[in-house]
Amino acid sequence: MQNIKESNAKWIFAGYCLWISVASCVVDQEVMAQNKLSSEEIFALEDKYGCRNYAPLQVALTRGEGVFVWDVEGRRYYDFLSAYSAVNQGHCHPRIIKALNEQASKLTLVSRAFYSDQLGKYEKFMTELLGYDRLLPMNTGVEGGESACKIARKWGYEVKKIPQNQAKKALKDPNVAAFMVEPIQGEAGVVKPDTGYLQKVRALCTKYNVLWIADEVQTGLGRTGKLLAVEHEGVKPDILILGKALSGGVLPVSAVLANNNVMDVIKPGTHGSTYGGNPLACAVATEAIKVLLEDKLIENAARLEAVFRAELEKIPKSKVNVVRGRGLMFAIVIDDSIPAYEVCKRLRDAGLITKPTHGQTIRLAPPLVITEQQIREGASIIQKVLEDFKK
Length: 391
What we know:
By secondary structure, this protein is an alpha+beta fold. The chain is built from twelve helices and 14 strands. One of its GO terms (molecular function) is ornithine aminotransferase activity.
């Protein structure tokens, strides 16, 4: 593999056809030549003109390919965050970019005031794949969650006949409409529930006629080694929310799926989105899902779980207290004596980028196109940075 000189290659091994990036050097001179702003100038622009709702790691990225990204000075990094699991198919996957360009040259937006030749095909493809009657197309994961709550609220009043303004929180109360949960909590630090938890959720929701909403915006579409994380326990939610990797990280696309008895509470004029279900999004999302399936990226995530876990568990316990995860969705909990943000800065300097989430937890979620060799290389960087860390 070391003899491959091209910047792109398709490697076929162990039954997996993975599109990846092969780079012979850490610094890309062409990238450096194309960029006129330095990293420091980019940081200053955002700091002066942007709302400070994020505290980004100081790295200014300009290009991505496969599992790698490059900053404006041409330095290459392993991406072990994948835009919070939005880039499961790898940065700028050529098939997804081709679908984007082809559709963008024909028609991008009509709103839902008219039909397009893309939306119905996309809805059919997704509902048949996931086993639901209907799909509500939206844009962001947050919109997907809000739409699911709106559907559940209307269902509670119109189908379950909860009296107006009397919805309660307790599951046994007859006025509760729905229970919403992530199968694995992402932003909380990749917190995986005990085995059997989701089966009990399903049983309780069925018993008390409560809708179960599964937020699979982060966990869905291959990230945990299954198409959906709920599949690990063989259960099916009443309402499913998807986002992030639904577009392969190319543009905002989300979806809410449910059966007729739930989705039919939405009538014309009761829920809208100008961009939801636009032709560009439909074409991109369809191709993004086909890439996941045809390139066997879900199987790759499942296969590499044990490798990634074993490599992370080599890190001394004095540095990492906990390793947890499923598929290629992992987190490590750094010892309290070591600042997690400082660890991420040193990982950046060593050629790997990710971010802490909630204190001492560092999330690790590389694109699903990653190879076993690249997993080992990334884990080796993490191990070396932590072993060399001095208080």
